[in-house]
Automatic annotation (TrEMBL):
The lineage of its organism: Eukaryota, Metazoa, Chordata, Craniata, Vertebrata. SUPFAM superfamilies: C-type lectin-like (SSF56436). It holds the Pfam family Lectin_C. This is Killer cell lectin-like receptor subfamily B member 1B allele C. The gene is LOC101822612. It comes from the Eukaryota. It comes from Mesocricetus auratus (Golden hamster).
Length: 234
């Protein structure tokens, strides 16, 4: 009797024990995606968002550049209009043209130099000093054309003129005052070359003379740049 009661109580207790809840089962046709598929999907979404943002930024940049270009064109047209109006309004004013080389009064222009024939005579060193006070030097003859020009001018003036050429010692060479040696192809010197010899030029020859002799002289200097002003036709 007691044993049957105990067995019955144990069976009743077992039937009353709570059952553990099992996880709900998925339908048999449900697809389970691997983890790397989900990661790839997320990365794809991020890349798409970045692409959209980049396209928006590029569009804004292009629009800004187009606006700046249009403003510059309009500003240039306005500026040209203003300049044109000013030119029309100032039509009576003089306009500047490129500068030209000019020699001061009393100086003869020749190529890239201005040449001056003195009116007084003195020794060679005084002629050299006088040219220096004028911002010039004694003449250095460059070629046969310049030699012919100087001879023709000396013929008209009827005198001999010191040039920037003297006989130096102890090397016994004819040298120009810039230190270069005389080239025999340019001119030939008549007369004996001594220790204190300087060259003078006349209508037909170049002569070796004592530097203490009295002669006129020829100076040369660079021309000045003078802007030309032209009045437009009315």
């Amino acid at each position: 009797m007691d044993a049957s009661v105990v067995y019955a109580d144990l069976n009743l207790a077992r039937t009353r024990e709570p059952k553990h809840a099992s996880p709900p089962s998925l339908p048999p046709d449900t697809c389970r995606c691997p983890r790397w598929h989900r990661l790839a999907l997320k990365l794809g979404c991020v890349g798409l968002i970045l692409l959209v943002l980049g396209m928006i930024g590029l569009g804004v940049l292009v629009l800004s550049l187009l606006q700046k270009t249009s403003v510059g064109v309009i500003g240039g047209e306005i500026g040209e209009g203003i300049i044109g109006d000013n030119q029309e309004n100032n039509g009576t004013k003089t306009t500047e043209s490129p500068a030209k080389l000019s020699c001061t009064k009393g100086w003869l222009p020749h190529r890239d130099k201005c040449i001056h024939f003195s009116q007084e005579s003195n020794i060679w060193k005084e002629g050299l000093a006088d040219c220096a006070t004028k911002g010039a030097t004694l003449l250095l003859i460059q070629d046969h054309e310049e030699l012919r020009l100087v001879k023709d001018s000396a013929n008209v003036k009827g005198s001999a003129f010191w040039i920037g050429l003297n006989h130096t010692w102890p090397d016994k060479n004819w040298r120009w005052i810039n230190g270069s040696t005389l080239s025999s192809d340019v001119l030939q010197i008549t007369g004996e070359a001594k220790k204190d010899s300087c060259a003078s030029i006349s209508k037909d020859r170049v002569i070796s003379e004592d530097c203490a002799s009295d002669n006129m002289w020829i100076c040369q200097k660079k021309p000045t740049l003078v802007p030309e002003t032209l009045c437009p036709d009315s």
